[in-house]
Design brief:
Blueprint (H helix, E strand, L loop, with lengths): L1 E6 L16 H11 L3 E3 L6 H10 L1 E2 L5 E3 L2 E10 L5 E6 L2 H11 L20 H10 L3 E4 L18 H5 L8 E3 L6 H4 L9 E3 L16 E6 L4 H8 L6 E8 L10 E2 L5 E6 L11 E3 L3 E6 L2 H13 L6 H7 L5 E2 L2 H8 L14 E4 L2 H9 L7 H14 L2 H7 L2 H7 L1 H11 L4 E3 L8 E3 L3
Parallel strand pairs: 1-2, 2-5, 8-9, 11-17, 13-15
Antiparallel strand pairs: 1-10, 3-4, 4-5, 5-6, 6-7, 10-11, 12-16, 14-15, 18-19
Bound molecules: zinc ion (ZN) (2 copies).
Length: 436
């Protein structure tokens, strides 16, 4: 049995807001730097991308697909009639074409140039039946994000609510960038499903591709083995999930639907006549001052869930009542069945990570996300020490210290979970806070 670092959800240039440089060659180059062995193809139902993949991917004797020395799983993301996103994996190209034929009558954009992530007007349960009957695998994508996700605000609270009798055919959920195992295992309905941590990358860059991945124990990199690993059969399994610290994700924290300010709570000694009437507004935040911020936040979340809370910043500026939306962490608070995570025995460990590129950016105090200086340092580390995953997780600290003390100190703090984060929300990524 082998271990494969696997990122199972990406996109192609045929989805909206995707890098034009995304192609098999650029993907493979990033995979090598990162230490990824297997990658989802992204958007395999889109006709042009499908043709390109059919032409370039080599089918191996064990049933796996490869390009140069990286393996690929045929993969797409679909939006169903409930606007829930689902990730789909296919055994081979003929199944891709069969699924295409079967769902085409329900989709207006499946065969479009920009139909990378098609909208298919079928209820979730029916979509699951169709996909699994044809031998492919399906499960909810970025399960807790406030948009287009199964567990978003005012939508489903359990897998059963969404998939009804087809629930038993859903073997995995994708956690999404703003959630991890500790958050997701507060929902009893998820105890039997496998968790996947995937990047949902829209670019081949080292900040996107592989920012989340799964270390999978299986015999070879084929679809059949992946199914066994997801179903945890014959000793195949997900051995480890690695993903962004949830606070770094774009949707961790509650936010205003219009101005996108994140709502955070701060302690104050000043006595308020009633809750929530003391606050300060900055460019990116509404800071609510409370004597007991934890208690106040709880009450606030309950009120948002009831649709009662409007944005103080928008009220002041536009004199308009704009609703506050729950982030991933608060939505989980509302639908959780336990105040603490209850991990089933099969659940692998989860490592909270920060992309190496962003670690270097923070150390060098560089804002640009495509800085040459940062990229040069990144390439130098990879050349001298090993793949990004090895640098972040495995390589002994002494070696990294010799390369660069600053970078080493941040990696050490991240490994020990001794780092503070400014939580992301409303579409803005979170950030590492530096006091080191
Ligand atoms: Zn999606
Ligand atoms: Zn607002």
């Amino acid at each position: 049995m082998d271990l494969f670092n696997t990122d199972l959800h990406i996109h192609s240039p045929h989805s909206i807001a995707v890098s034009k440089n995304l192609n098999l060659d650029t993907m493979v180059e990033t995979c090598k730097n990162k230490g990824l062995d297997i990658l989802g193809t992204g958007d395999v139902l889109q006709p042009d991308w499908l043709k390109y993949l059919e032409k370039n991917l080599k089918k191996n004797n064990d049933g796996s697909f490869s390009y140069k020395d990286i393996f690929f799983i045929l993969q797409t993301e679909i939006e169903d009639i409930e606007s829930v996103h689902e990730v789909v994996f296919f055994p081979d190209f003929s199944t891709v074409r069969e699924v295409q034929k079967k769902i085409k009558p329900y989709s207006k954009n499946l065969l479009d140039e920009w139909g990378g992530r098609p909208r298919v007007n079928l209820p979730p349960a029916e979509l699951v039946e169709i996909i699994t009957d044809l031998g492919a695998l399906i499960g909810p994508a970025h399960a807790f994000t406030p948009f287009k996700a199964i567990f978003r605000q005012n939508k489903f609270k359990t897998l059963r609510d969404c998939y009804q009798d087809a629930e038993k055919k859903v073997k995995f959920i994708e956690l999404g960038l703003s959630a991890n195992t500790d958050l997701a295992d507060r929902l009893d309905c998820l105890k039997n499903v496998t968790f996947l941590s995937n990047s949902d990358a829209h670019s081949e860059g080292p900040r996107a591709l592989g920012r989340e991945f799964n270390k999978i124990k299986m015999d070879n990199p084929s679809f059949e083995e992946l199914v066994l690993a997801i179903e945890r059969k014959n000793q195949r399994k997900i051995e480890l999930n690695v993903g962004l610290h949830p606070k770094l994700g774009k949707y961790f924290n509650m936010f205003c639907h219009k101005c996108r300010r994140r709502i955070i709570f701060k302690k104050t000694k000043k006595q308020g006549s009633s809750l929530f009437n003391q606050y300060s507004i900055t460019e990116n935040f509404v800071k609510i001052l409370a004597n007991d911020p934890i208690k106040a936040k709880k009450e606030y979340i309950n009120n948002i869930a009831k649709g009662k809370v409007t944005c103080p910043a928008c009220k002041e500026k536009f004199n308009k009542n704009i609703k506050i939306k729950l982030g991933v962490s608060e939505r989980i608070e509302v639908i959780s069945t336990s105040p603490e995570p209850i991990h089933p025995n099969h659940r692998p460990p989860y490592i909270n990570a920060v992309p190496l590129f962003d670690i270097i950016r923070s150390i060098k105090n560089i804002k640009s996300t495509n800085s040459k200086t940062v990229l040069n340092t990144y390439n130098k580390i990879i050349n001298e020490l090993g793949t990004e995953f090895e640098v972040l997780i495995e390589i002994p600290m002494e070696k990294i210290v010799k390369f660069d003390e600053g970078i080493a100190s941040v990696i050490e703090a991240i490994r020990a979970d001794k780092i503070e984060y400014t939580p992301g929300g409303g579409g803005t990524y979170g950030q590492i806070q530096f006091n080191i």
